[in-house]
């Protein structure tokens, strides 16, 4: 049986040619892609994310355009150790373009060398440090010295392990510190709640105090009206007129007495001069008798005609031998001396049971007070000290406050039996200048009500200021408020430095001497002034404080302190030094800047933060 062969019909020549072309193109594209991928993978100093920038031009696969777009160079010229591009972007893996104005001097990343640092974290170094014979620690994999001149071992495993350990420790500190910070926030919140409750209570007390003051003012006004009517009625009485007349008479007599005292002193001065200058040798018996009589009167005797005769008689019969001695004796006795030696004059000047001060006070005293006081009580009251008459020396607006203080002070003395009954003069705006006991009591009650209202208002204002916490000062969550007023310090050998939150910084000598104030809290001020307390980088805002207006340096400015803050589990002063003249640099640590990560336990609104179960 004959076999038959089945044959296929041949393909058309046109179709066969098309397939041949397609295969050639595919092979070319695959080769180009493989070559391009190999070229990208072999580019030293280029970060993986930057490899797409180092692809040939699609229009001309053999060319590459500099990153600044200025010129195109052969793709093979990349990393050929010759700087072709003005921006130095063609030599990422060599130091050829380290002097590029646009690249190296401009600080652009195309003037840097990328170190992969597998096992650690990538890094960049300046391209001028590539193959310089030094193993740069930033490139722990040793890739910066690939020319073989220096063997740089790959230390990334060890470095990465140490780095991760340190990072974990910092993270642990941050996590623990953030919980303490959460406690600060909770404490500040409770402080605010307590203050708000106190403010609410004070507002009620203030309203009650206002009503009480208004009521006491009305009572005082009524008492003053009644008191004025009573005073006017008393002024119409005969007793008032009599006392007023007697007071005027006393004043006139005191004035007359003053004149007589002056004249008496003048006369005694004249007679003293005559007695001192008299010469007994003139034998003028009349003058001698008058002088001797005055001398006797001056010594406390009487001055009359009989005394003159008694004095003159022995003088006339004395012999001449005794005249000289007698004259000398008279001269010694008659010496005027001081006014205190004039016994008779002193007796005349004595005031007796009614001293001039007592009479003067009686004449100056309000007539209505004389009507109410008996003379004995009046004598005691007239001896009041300055404490009871302060209103006479003070401005009118201060008088009510001083009267209230004196009354309170006297009440304490009376209750403790230090003094017995006291009667004192009160200031008054009434017509006669005298208040009744009812008006005095009403005025004191009104003053006490006003004083109580002032104290409540002051306390309310202070608490309102405390509750209006500024986030730029106390933090966005008021985490700093719980630290206000607390102080920490560090002994640095010669000095101990003290830091008080929102207070002051102080230098204390350890070997005696005065403390020096280095500044008072002024504000938070980050290095980058564009950072705000509520912006994207708000955590950095609270990392630096400025303390100003400290004690002035000798021939210099006021001292100030720049305080840098870092996260830690406790509040502590870490270091202090004088960075510039009169400007101190201080480093402190506090949990207040330990901000929680995204996976931290949030702060509960009803209590302090509660740790996760695996942390119990």
From TrEMBL:
Amino acid composition bias (Low complexity), ranges on this chain: 427-442
Q: Where are the transmembrane segments?
A: none
Q: Where is the composition biased (Polar residues)?
A: 447-460
Q: Which UniProt keywords apply?
A: Coiled coil, Disulfide bond, Endoplasmic reticulum, Signal
Q: Which domain of life is it from?
A: Eukaryota
Cited Pfam families: PRKCSH-like (PF12999), PRKCSH_1 (PF13015)
Q: Which GO terms describe its cellular component?
A: glucosidase II complex
Q: Which CDD domains match?
A: LDLa
Ranges where the MRH domain occurs: 485-596
Q: Where is this region: Disordered?
A: 301-341, 424-468
Concerning SUPFAM superfamilies, the annotation shows: LDL receptor-like module, Mannose 6-phosphate receptor domain
Coiled coil ranges: 185-226, 250-277
Q: Name one GO biological process term.
A: N-glycan processing
**Compositionally biased intervals (Acidic residues):** 303-331
Instruction: Name the InterPro entries for this protein.
Output: Gtb1-like, LDL_receptor-like_sf, LDrepeatLR_classA_rpt, Man6P_isomerase_rcpt-bd_dom_sf, MRH_dom, PRKCSH, PRKCSH_N
| Endpoints of the signal sequence | 1-37
- According to UniProt, the name of this protein is Glucosidase 2 subunit beta
Native species? Pseudomicrostroma glucosiphilum
């Amino acid at each position: 049986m004959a076999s038959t062969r089945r044959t296929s019909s041949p393909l058309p020549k046109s179709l066969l040619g098309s397939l041949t072309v397609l295969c050639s193109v595919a092979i070319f594209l695959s080769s180009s892609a493989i070559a391009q991928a190999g070229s990208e993978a072999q580019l030293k100093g280029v970060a993986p994310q930057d490899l797409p920038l180092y692809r040939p031009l699609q229009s001309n696969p053999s060319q590459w355009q500099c990153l600044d777009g200025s010129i195109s160079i052969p793709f093979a010229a990349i990393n050929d150790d010759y700087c072709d591009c003005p921006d130095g972007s063609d030599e990422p893996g060599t130091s050829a373009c380290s002097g590029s104005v646009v690249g190296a001097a401009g600080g652009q990343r195309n003037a840097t060398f990328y170190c992969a640092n597998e096992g650690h974290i990538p890094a960049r170094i300046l391209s001028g440090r590539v193959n310089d014979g030094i193993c740069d620690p930033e490139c722990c994999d040793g890739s910066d010295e690939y020319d073989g001149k220096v063997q740089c071992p790959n230390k990334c495993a060890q470095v990465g392990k140490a780095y991760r350990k340190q990072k974990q420790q910092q993270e642990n500190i941050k996590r623990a510190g953030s919980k303490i910070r959460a406690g600060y926030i909770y404490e500040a919140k409770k402080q605010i709640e307590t203050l708000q409750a106190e403010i609410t209570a004070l507002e009620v007390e203030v309203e009650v105090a206002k009503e009480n003051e208004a009521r006491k003012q009305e009572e005082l006004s009524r008492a003053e009206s009644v008191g004025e009517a009573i005073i006017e009625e008393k002024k119409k009485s005969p007793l008032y007129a009599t006392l007023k007349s007697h007071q005027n008479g006393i004043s006139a007599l005191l004035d007359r007495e003053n004149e007589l005292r002056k004249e008496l002193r003048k006369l005694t001065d004249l007679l003293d001069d005559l007695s001192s200058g008299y010469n007994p040798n003139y034998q003028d018996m009349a003058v001698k008798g008058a002088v001797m009589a005055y001398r006797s009167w001056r010594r406390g005797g009487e001055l009359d005609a009989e005394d003159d005769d008694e004095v003159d008689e022995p003088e006339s019969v004395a012999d001449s031998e005794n005249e000289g001695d007698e004259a000398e004796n008279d001269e010694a006795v008659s010496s005027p001396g001081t006014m205190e030696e004039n016994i008779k004059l002193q007796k005349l000047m004595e005031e007796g049971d009614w001293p001039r001060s007592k009479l003067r006070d009686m004449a100056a005293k309000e007539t209505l007070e004389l009507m109410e006081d008996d003379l004995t009580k009046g004598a005691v009251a007239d001896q009041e000290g300055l404490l009871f008459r302060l209103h006479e020396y003070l401005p009118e607006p201060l008088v009510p406050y001083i009267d209230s203080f004196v009354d309170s002070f006297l009440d304490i003395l009376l209750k403790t039996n230090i003094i017995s009954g006291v009667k004192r003069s009160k200031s008054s705006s009434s017509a006669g200048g005298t208040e009744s006991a009812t008006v005095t009591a009403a005025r004191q009650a009104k003053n006490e009500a006003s004083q109580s209202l002032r104290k409540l208002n002051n306390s309310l204002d202070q608490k309102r200021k405390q509750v209006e916490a500024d986030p730029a000062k106390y933090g966005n969550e008021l985490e700093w408020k719980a630290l206000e007023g607390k102080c920490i310090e560090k002994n640095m050998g010669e000095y101990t430095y003290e830091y008080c939150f929102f207070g002051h910084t102080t230098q204390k000598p350890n070997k005696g001497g005065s403390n020096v104030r280095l500044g008072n809290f002024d504000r938070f001020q980050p290095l980058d002034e564009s950072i705000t307390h509520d912006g994207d980088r708000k955590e950095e805002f609270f990392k630096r404080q400025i303390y100003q207006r400290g004690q002035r340096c000798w021939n210099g400015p006021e001292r100030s302190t720049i305080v840098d803050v870092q996260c830690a589990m406790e509040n502590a002063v870490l270091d202090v030094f004088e960075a510039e003249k009169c400007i101190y640099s201080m480093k402190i640590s506090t949990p207040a800047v330990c901000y929680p990560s995204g996976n931290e336990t949030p702060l509960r609104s009803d209590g302090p933060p509660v740790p996760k179960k695996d942390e119990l």
